[in-house]
Automatic annotation (TrEMBL):
Superkingdom classification of source: Eukaryota
Enzyme Commission code(s) on record: 2.1.1.244
Species name: Mastacembelus armatus
Protein name: protein N-terminal methyltransferase
SUPFAM superfamilies: S-adenosyl-L-methionine-dependent methyltransferases
Keyword Metal-binding: no
Group of enzyme by EC: transferase
Length: 222
């Protein structure tokens, strides 16, 4: 096995090992910043509501996909209140097991819990109104991210939307050895989106997060 291939294998397997040890809680999902979840969700609701509804060009509300869903923090407070059904995909089976409990009554409206790395996952073609990808792109290599976004584009229903919400670095690629991820700057994220053949139709910075953490940006793509 060549070095690059080996590095890639360990990039993914180290991340899997890391997440297996993380508590299946909101705090665990947010690296100890559980308290910012409400601000995050409210910001996402305002962002998403701009696109949803009836009428020309509006995004439907039938089905959403939560990518790197963890215990379903976003599914519970953002997606299930807005969409009829939601599917979850995550590489950590323990989190998906916890999601069923965390979501309570509303778990009835979850269609599927897919246990898979996004690098290997192909969402069903033409199936989703919104594909939400939050705090997980740093776990994919550039090539896998581009290919995953291309598969997501095929998985959209008419007027569907892909949303990336993630940390952005000030400049360049900043590796995190602890959870085996990388943080890219906004220019790099935009260039990977363009490489995937997607268009950025709206972009915002999440406000009111603690000053010491990375800036978080939300991008709507189709
Ligand atoms: C920082 S948590 C974010 C969870 C959720 N998106 C949220 O905001 O509450 C990262 C999640 O990504 C998952 N993950 C890590 N690498 C992944 C991969 N290659 N494919 C799919 N999920 C992955 C982890 O299991 C974990 O649930």
């Amino acid at each position: 096995m060549g070095d690059i291939a080996h590095d890639e294998v360990s990039f993914y397997s180290n991340a899997e090992d890391y997440w297996k040890e993380v508590p299946a809680t909101v705090d665990g999902m947010l690296g100890g910043y559980g308290s910012i979840s409400i601000i995050d969700i409210n910001g996402s609701k305002d962002f998403l509501r701009k696109f949803l509804g009836e009428g020309e060009g509006k995004t439907g509300t039938r089905c959403a996909l939560d990518c790197g869903a963890g215990i379903g923090r976003i599914t519970k407070r953002l997606l299930l209140p807005l969409f009829s059904t939601v599917d979850l995909v995550d590489v950590t089976q323990e989190f998906l097991d916890k999601a069923k409990i965390h979501l309570g009554e509303d778990s009835k409206r979850v269609g599927n819990y897919f246990c898979s790395g996004l690098q290997d996952f192909a969402p069903e073609n033409g199936h989703y109104d919104v594909i939400w990808i939050q705090w997980v792109i740093g776990h994919l290599t550039d090539e896998h991210l581009v290919k995953f976004l291309q598969r997501c584009q095929k998985a959209l229903r008419p007027n569907g939307l892909i949303v990336i919400k993630d940390n952005v670095s000030y400049e360049g690629v900043v590796p995190d050895e602890v959870d085996s991820s990388i943080c890219r700057d906004l220019a790099i994220v935009r260039s990977l989106v363009a490489k995937a053949g997607l268009r950025i139709i709206h972009e915002e910075q999440q406000m009111n997060f603690p000053k010491e953490i990375y800036q978080v940006h939300t991008l709507a793509l189709r």
